């Protein structure tokens, strides 16, 4: 990581935080054993997120993630017409800086909530410029439940040579009157777009039930081209939001459910490593980002912990 990024991601040491938290008797419920049997079905989880995005339809709940290109400069320095699959795009807070950071990059963005996709499309439209709208392709998909649509990368493309060139598949898929739910109406002579160069999982995997994570990650692997990168950022163990959960909100080991029915898992480095390396990825970067900020209203210090990772599909 660059020096600028590293400076803002090491406000405190994670090991010191861990020692402090684990000595706090009032927080002991977070460390007790737990039967991690499924507490809800994937369809119930999807419905909870759809309701969440309906309630936050103005998009103000999420801020544009301007830090993204500092954390993942590969998105700015990539080849012309590189393709990104943003998984769990929400209202577009991750998509927008990616599109702005590289004039030729193409982003396919999915979410289980059509309401969220509509907000993302409105955000991109309002950002100005025909180029951004032409390079943004939203579609509805619950990747942990149903997998990705076939047109992202068919079986033959998933097995194809790593020497596959960018010009062997279309740069832009036209979605003529099909709406957000169907980008599969490709030209008859095109089976798929041939895979993507990047997959971004930004605060998405934590919303998937833990026992479904290996399948979800395998889906991401399947649509990446050989040598492609998966860029990961999500909640880390002992993040302040984890410590706020009451005992009755635990639904698994390091897995919690909010009052609105949405869930969140908090990752340690070993779990992330086991999940992605176990799926066949090569680990390039993996570390805690420890950020200290101040709540302007209360004046309280907040210690945020996220996990940053980069993983590559082997060539």
| SSE pattern, N- to C-terminal | HHHHEHEHHEHHEHEHEEEHEE
Q: Which structural class best describes the helix and strand composition?
A: alpha/beta
Ends apart, CA distance between termini:
23 Å
Unreliable spans: 1-7, 161-182, 184-189
For the largest beta sheet, what order do the strands appear in spatially?
A: 3-2-1-4-5-10-9
Structural domain tally: 1
**CATH-defined superfamily:** Vaccinia Virus protein VP39
Task: Give the CATH architecture.
Answer: 3-Layer(aba) Sandwich
Provide the β-strand percentage band: 15-25%
Family: Belongs to the methyltransferase superfamily. METL family.
EC number: 2.1.1.-
Organism: Tetracentron sinense
Pfam family, one: Methyltransf_23
Strand and helix map with partners:
Elements: H1 3-8, H2 14-23, H3 42-55, H4 68-71, E1 83-87, H5 95-101, E2 106-111, H6 114-126, H7 130-134, E3 136-140, H8 143-146, H9 155-158, E4 196-202, H10 213-223, E5 224-235, H11 240-243, E6 250-252, E7 255-257, E8 263-265, H12 269-278, E9 282-294, E10 301-312
Parallel strand pairs: 1-2, 1-4, 2-3, 4-5
Antiparallel strand pairs: 5-10, 6-7, 7-8, 9-10
């Amino acid at each position: 990581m660059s020096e600028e990024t590293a400076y803002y991601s090491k406000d405190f040491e994670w090991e010191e935080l861990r020692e402090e938290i684990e000595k706090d008797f009032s927080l002991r419920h977070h460390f007790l054993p737990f039967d991690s049997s499924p507490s809800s079905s994937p369809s119930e989880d999807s419905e909870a997120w759809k309701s969440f995005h309906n309630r936050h339809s103005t998009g103000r709940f999420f801020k544009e993630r301007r830090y993204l290109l500092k954390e993942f400069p590969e998105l700015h320095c990539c080849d012309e017409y590189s393709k990104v699959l943003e998984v769990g795009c929400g209202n577009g807070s991750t998509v927008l800086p990616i599109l702005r950071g590289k004039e030729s990059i193409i982003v396919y963005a999915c979410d289980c909530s059509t309401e969220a996709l509509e907000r993302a499309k409105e955000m991109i439209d309002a950002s100005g410029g025909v180029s951004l709208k032409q390079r943004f392709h939203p579609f509805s998909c619950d990747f942990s439940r149903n997998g990705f649509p076939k047109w992202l990368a068919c079986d033959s493309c998933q097995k194809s040579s790593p020497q596959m060139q960018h010009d062997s598949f279309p740069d832009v898929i036209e979605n003529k009157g099909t709406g957000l739910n169907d980008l599969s109406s490709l030209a008859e002579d095109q089976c798929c777009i041939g895979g993507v160069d990047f997959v971004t999982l930004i605060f998405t995997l934590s919303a998937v039930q833990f026992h479904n994570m290996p399948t979800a990650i395998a889906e991401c692997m399947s649509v990446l081209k050989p040598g492609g990168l998966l860029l990961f950022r999500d909640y880390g163990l002992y993040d302040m939001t984890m410590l706020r959960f009451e005992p009755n909100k635990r639904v698994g080991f390091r897995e919690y459910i909010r009052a609105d029915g949405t869930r969140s898992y908090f990752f340690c480095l070993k779990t992330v490593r086991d999940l992605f390396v176990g799926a066949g990825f090569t680990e390039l970067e993996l570390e805690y980002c420890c950020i200290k900020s101040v709540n302007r209203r209360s004046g309280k210090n907040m210690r945020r912990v996220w996990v940053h990772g980069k993983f590559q599909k082997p060539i």
